[in-house]
Amino acid sequence: MKTFDYVRARTVEEATAAFAAAPGARYLGGGTNLVDLMKLGVERPTALVDVSRLPLDTVDELPDGSLRVGATVRNSDLAAHPLVREGWPALSRALLSGASGQLRNAATTGGNLLQRTRCPYFQDLSKPCNKREPGSGCGAREGVHRDHAVLGHSPHCVATHPSDMAVALAALDARVELTGPAGDRVVAADVFHRLPGDRPELDTEIRPGELITAVVLPAATRGLPSAYRKVRDRASYAFALASAAVVLRVEGGVVARVGIALGGVAHRPWRARRAEEALTGAAPSRAAFEHALDLELSAAEPLRDNGYKVPLARSLTVDVLTRLAARSAG
Amino acid sequence: MPDAPAALGTPVVRREGLDKVTGRARYAVEHRLPGLAHAWPVPARVACGRVERVDASAALAVPGVLAVLTHENAPRLAEPDDPTLAVLQDDRVPHRGWVVALVVAETPEAAREGAGAVDVAYLPLDHDVLLTPDRPDAYVPEKANGGHPGLREHGDPDGAYASSPVRVDTAYRVPPLHNHPMEPHASTARWTDGRLEAYCSSQGTTTVRQTLAAMFEVPEESVTVRAEHVGGGFGSKGTPRPDVVLAAMAALHTGRPVALALPRRDLPALVGHRATTLHRVRLGAGEDGRIRSLVHEVTTYSSRVKEFVEQAAVPGRTMYTAPHSRTAHRVARLDVPTPSWMRAPGETPGMYALESAMDELAEALGMDPVELRVVNDCDVEPDTGKPFSSRHLVECLREGARRFGWEGRDPRPGRRRAGQVLTGTGVASATYPVLVSPSTATARALPDGTFLVRVNATDIGTGARTVLGQVAADALGAPGDRVRIEIGDSDLPAAPLAGGSSGTASWGWAVHEACVRLARRLAVYQGSLPHEGLEEHADTTGLADAGSDHARHAFGAHFAEVGVDTVTGEVRVNRLLGVYAAGRILNPRTARSQFVGGMVMGLGMALTEGSTLDPAFGDFAERDLAAYHVPVNADVPSVEAHWIEEDDPHLNPTGGKGIGEIGVVGTAAAVGSAFHHATGVRMRELPLTPDRVLEALSEQGAAHHRA
């Protein structure tokens, strides 16, 4: 059998040191995705550095009103946290729409961000996949790709990122805190994940050896009307065909702040900057929302069998915006 | 013998329930035999071709790997009746996923690692997995599954259709569907001095024993196959599958007991599935709604390995009076995995199409869909001319309509809107044939006042063990707790499989006979029983398989209410209600569970289930339970099953018609018709997933704009 070392880290320093000492190591959080991929042979780490028991399991309110969520906080706990439900409800909704109760109990905040695509070609060693094996080709582009990307894909990869949580974080202007060999740094959640380009094997901007220590929900989006809506093939336990996270503040009859991120449509949560620009300062109306989404989705390049995602993302997001605007105005 | 209250008809709890929920029940690969080794298959990576060479050296170098079986070194077997079992016998690759090697190791982990290290070189050929309705190579089979003629024609169906004042000409598609029982296909095998012993997750081990004895060329007495508990089958374990053959080969090859549980992702290619069916249905009716011509033409596929034809046009031979009819199958042989039985083969996709077409006909006529079915009810089976032994379809429809609140339904589609959600209701009929096969059984009275009933029945989760206990208790006039039931072992009296909704009728008949004989003998027996007790044997050969002058079928009616989110395209079932007429219901508790389970499976077929044959690679894209969407709890809100008690003297001593399959049969059509009632849009391809729904709704919107 394929053997690997297992190290349970007690501190962040221990974790990064153990990782650095074992080329080919992987950090292990809840294991809800990594262990599956190891069974399939997609991931073959030489060592697992278990970070799930690091003292990063607290949710702390910072003096500026932002919320610092430790990387090992479980998805269930984060979704149920009173400050999250009150201040950033879209995040709570997004978490609760993901996976199943059992998986959410195990999955960590950091691990959720680092889960990998569910593209069937990625998971199947007998088929080409540039993400799993760079240069081998993409089985999905001309294959079965109903669930795949319509925005930002490349000739090398048409996979989507599966996380619901990450979509909400992108819309909410959250930040990802990292620590690594070169010190600590912070990356905005909406650019933490990459587009595939010609390096589809890289899912995120994370650098070798870096460890996610926290996610920070900013004060700027705290308490704003926000929502997350996910469309899927069955009522629970299915990945998004498309999803939308929206935060919206209307002041004086115009959109003062808007954040829109789309899930299930791209290699990363798709921050809809063009739509946001078009809406900021405009009067919130269905027509304005539709116009904004049309602008955003004009960049879409659907594949042979996933064209439905464009109108779906449009109608879904317009609907979420319309509801939030009504709430904002009321 | 003391008087005992009748056990049949009462909701007796499952005999093995406690064992199952406490983990004491052992399944096929949970028998820790001394020296047990584990096997893992290597599936073919091409969809058509030959194995050129297998290099097992890397696999054999994996610590713990004991052997790698290939077509070059595996035991030679006699040719089986079912060619899907001829594994590792030659270099041919008939479809992707076909087993080309088997790794045996000390642990499942080592076997899996070894399987990944086997290097197989192929001589690939072009493959073709695309089914279209007009394939020139599709042919009319002599027989479809179940022995049904491939083609039946009465009168002048085309002429009668052309001259009918009201006509519906429509087409439907049902995608590949997979059984996916919770327990995968799994076996443990051990050879001892020429005797083969196997634990096999099977719906019937008598056949497994016969098959293994023939393939390994040993006497049947030298083979024992056990299936004490089985974690579901839904048809896919009805006959032996490659797992038990591979396990037995590996055990023979290595001299060790070997366990093999097929990986979930390999099931779709190896254990059978419901093939795609493409339907064209034409119904010609008079203004009164009476059908004059019924034409149901089905195109499906089978593999290169063997011909299996889903008998989806068969329900049209039974359901409604039609003086002119054609019910026909065509099959194309493709480079695909071999299809097989899946819960109510034939009826399930066939009734989806026929009953959906009935809904379209009701709309064309401006007639209530319940009334249309009532108008076309019959007391003689249209195809055979035989009278029905009992047929309470109309009663099921009426009772269902009453319970569901159908009366006063506004037939106009697209009228019930709450926000962005449109709601609608639909109805469909269901039918399933009464099947019964010969069985043997013994019943023994023991000196301590207990009884032992032995029959090689299989309880695949249905409650068979419990119900047979009830049958025996009633025939013996004894309380149920005095009756011990032994099932699930091929050394027991031979019995047919748990399939075709025929298990309880077939086994129950033999159990009843044996127990009645024993009770008669005891009634006149003098003195105390001998130490070994008194035993009676029954064999229903000649009785159970005797022809009948009657057409024997169960019937039912399904009602569904769905909500359709017009923004997201999501369809959710709010309510399902079924009413069945299936003879005598022997145990309301386990019967309800079977009906409800069937309806949930039908809900999955309607909304979430289906797989895609990948044209480039030739296999199914959805091969695990994350990608192949069976319904989860959140998809299943309110499901009600009711029944009408029938007293049908033309069945068997227990009076039951079989209930394992009819619950699935009409559910998808009822849901599909409810979708139309909600939206005004006909969806003719399953499942009703958001992508398809949005496309259909937008086409409707575009049509409105053009109009």
TrEMBL record, chain A:
Gene3D superfamilies attached to this UniProt entry: 3.30.465.10, CO dehydrogenase flavoprotein, C-terminal domain, Uridine Diphospho-n-acetylenolpyruvylglucosamine Reductase, domain 2
Oxidoreductase found in the keyword field: yes
Alphabetical list of InterPro entries matching this protein: CO_DH_flav_C, CO_DH_flav_C_dom_sf, Diverse_Substr_Oxidored, FAD-bd_PCMH, FAD-bd_PCMH-like_sf, FAD-bd_PCMH_sub1, FAD-bd_PCMH_sub2, Mopterin_DH_FAD-bd
Superkingdom of the source species: Bacteria
Oxidoreductase listed as a keyword: yes
Pfam families in the cross-refs: CO_deh_flav_C, FAD_binding_5
Record's keyword terms, sorted: Oxidoreductase
PANTHER family registered for this protein in UniProt: OXIDOREDUCTASE, XANTHINE DEHYDROGENASE SUBUNIT C-RELATED
Name of protein: Xanthine dehydrogenase family protein subunit M
TrEMBL record, chain B:
A Pfam match: MoCoBD_1
SMART domains in alphabetical order: Ald_Xan_dh_C
Region ranges (Disordered): 143-163
Keywords: Molybdenum, Oxidoreductase
Nucleus found in the keyword field: no
SUPFAM superfamilies the UniProt entry points to: CO dehydrogenase molybdoprotein N-domain-like, Molybdenum cofactor-binding domain
Domain (Aldehyde oxidase/xanthine dehydrogenase a/b hammerhead) ranges: 22-126
Keyword flag Oxidoreductase: yes
Listed name of the protein: Xanthine dehydrogenase family protein molybdopterin-binding subunit
Naturally occurring in which organism (per UniProt): Streptomyces fragilis
